[in-house]
Amino acid sequence: RAARTTPAFPDLEGKHPCFSTTAEGHAKAARLHLPVAPGCNIDCAFCRRDFNRVEQRPGVAARLLSPDDAVAATGRALRIVPNLAVVGIAGPGDPLASDHAIETFSRIHALWPALTLCVSTNGLMLPERVDELAAAGVTTLTVTVNAVDPEIQARVTPKIAWKRKRVNGVEAARRLIDNQLAGIARAEKLGFTIKINTVLIPTVNDHHIGEVAKTVAEAGARMINIIPLIPEGRLAHLGEPDFIARHKARAAAGKHLTVFTHCQRCRADAVGTPGLTDFTRELYGDDIRAE
Ligand code: CLF
Ligand code: SF4
Questions:
Q1: pLDDT per position as a tens digit, 170-198
Q2: At what angle do helices 100-111 and 67-80 cross, to 10 degrees?
Q3: Which of 46, 124, 127, 235 is the most buried (most CB within 10 A)?
Q4: Molecular function terms in GO for this entry (predicted)?
Q5: What's the gap in Å between 157 CA and the centre of ligand 2?
Q6: Which of 9, 20, 31 for a ligand 1 pocket mutation test, highest count of atoms within 8 Å of Cβ?
């Protein structure tokens, strides 16, 4: 993977592992993921959330933390992880589907204002909640956008929960895409630095990546991370995209946005410098067990 030699985001280079674009920048800062988000408001076909200690992928944590536990864990992490710079909430469910993430961010921001706060969301609730995220001190935002064509999106996320009702198919897809794009545009106005995660799904959206990148760039995103599908759930039969498919997708996206290439597909409770150090055991000790 060719690392860039110039930073795309000079303010974040070496200070945020997922918004750094040089090899040195990726290796400098650590992040702490706090698994405080219990549930999700959409139903992606590839998603399989689980509580265990072994699987290295998004959607997995050893256990859920309450906001109280999360604040305590941050205090301990600051003593254990020397280069801790970013506190992120990325699951195991969606951080904006409940109040736990925003409450956790506000409390951490009040106690340790120098930490960069980062959130990763499916974007359904972004228009409604992005102002609260800004008020809680969050500055870096990732929105997972897997398609901008409702017909394609309906195959990725066949149903959503919206205003206490279940919405299906193309109607659900339209709502999700509209909210994602409106939320990104609002976040850009509020000054967030915005990255898009796009799961590369063979035969479903692999021909559509350029269109996704173009559309989210117009909405205000600055970077895109193409994440090869981890074949799970109802898309387990598709297999992982191969090297050529990944390369083609990155090239298509790269026409519109800076492409992030160092993603480690982190667990929802990962602690350390992505791909380099792992402090999960030190931080949680025997407390880290599935309950
Ligand atoms: Fe976490 Fe995500 Fe923030 Fe990074 S991870 S919430 S932006 S602090 Fe990073 Fe991990 Fe890839 Fe995510 S390497 S899965 S892109
Ligand atoms: Fe799973 Fe994330 Fe999709 Fe929710 S948004 S169903 S947690 S992959």
A1: 999 999 999 999 999 999 999 999 999 99
A2: 40
A3: 124
A4: 4 iron, 4 sulfur cluster binding; lyase activity; metal ion binding
A5: 9
A6: 31
